[in-house]
Amino acid sequence: MLSTRVDKWLWSVRLYSTRSQATAACNGGHVQVNGQPAKPSSLVRVGDSVEAYSREVHRLLVVQRIIEKRVGAAVAVECYSDQTPPAPPAELRVQIAVRDSGSGRPTKKDRRDLEKFHRRQR
């Protein structure tokens, strides 16, 4: 087997939980093969570069082996080499103001505090 569909390969190496999620990611523009947007039926071969946005992480993978069936995690890791750059340290990440779930609408004071926080971030 020299090539396979990109959605099938992404599912089989466990980047997406279901094949329909992999297909939706391709249709949504979250997958690129060799720098080009990939349709679900795009073919991948050994040595191709696959960029995918999965679980809020941008991954850069190089295909090492073609598989079409879903395999265990230990085997799946052998099918690609992960070229994803490391995440920045926690102190360099952008802080986001988050309210507790279920706490209702922000009060006027809460809104002013949020606006003050966002002005400091600029």
Short description, anyone?
With 122 residues, the protein is of the alpha+beta class. It is built from 4 helices and 7 strands; from the N terminus they run βααβββββαβα. One of its GO terms (molecular function) is single-stranded RNA binding.
Describe what you observe in this structure.
The chain is α+β, with helices and mostly antiparallel strands. It has two domains: 3-87, Roll (Structural Genomics Hypothetical 15.5 Kd Protein In mrcA-pckA Intergenic Region, Chain A), CATH 3.10.290; 92-121, no CATH class. 29% of the residues lie in helices and 22% in strands. The protein has helices spanning 6-12, 19-27, 73-77, 108-121, and strands at 3-5, 31-33, 36-37, 43-45, 49-54, 57-63, 80-82. Strand 2 (31-33) and strand 3 form a beta hairpin. Helix 1 (6-12) packs across helix 2.
Task: List the main descriptive attributes of the protein structure presented here.
122 residues, alpha+beta, Structural Genomics Hypothetical 15.5 Kd Protein In mrcA-pckA Intergenic Region, Chain A, 2 domains, 4 helices, 29% helix, DNA binding, single-stranded RNA binding
